Amino acid sequence: MVIQCRVYQARNGLIYLSRGDGLAYTSLTLQQVSDLRLDLYSLDDFSLKDFKKAYHTAQSLQDASDVGNPQEV
């Protein structure tokens, strides 16, 4: 069984993971975005401004701007 997932940024700036037809979805924490090493800049219509606004309470804005940048492993 193959389940397709989609990662996207909602209008509220949060990053979401949806499964299948999109009826099952959840927002990701800043830690989850970091742990999954998501390249946020590859998301359609990604807005760093909206991202910082949505996640500003979790960490400083500087830390939030570092999340989602692709890094060499």
Describe the structure.
With 73 residues, this protein is an alpha+beta fold. Strands 1-2-3 form a 3-stranded antiparallel sheet, with no helix packed on it. It has one domain (5-66). Strand 2 (15-19) and strand 3 (24-27) form a beta hairpin. The protein is globular and about 35 Å long. Helices cover 27% and strands 19% of the residues. The longest helix has 8 residues, at 48-55. It contains 3 helices and 3 strands; from the N terminus they run βββααα.
Q: Could you describe the largest sheet, including whether it forms a barrel?
A: 3 strands, antiparallel
Helical content stands at: 25-40%
The fraction of residues in strands falls at 15-25%
| Average predicted confidence as pLDDT | 83
Structural domain tally: 1
Terminal CA distance: 30 Å
Number of helices: 3
**Strand elements, count:** 3
Label the structural class.
alpha+beta
Secondary-structure element series: EEEHHH
Global morphology: globular
Query: Regions with pLDDT < 50 over 5+ consecutive residues?
Result: none
Radius of gyration over C-alpha positions, nearest whole angstrom? 12 Å
Strand order, sheet with most strands? 1-2-3
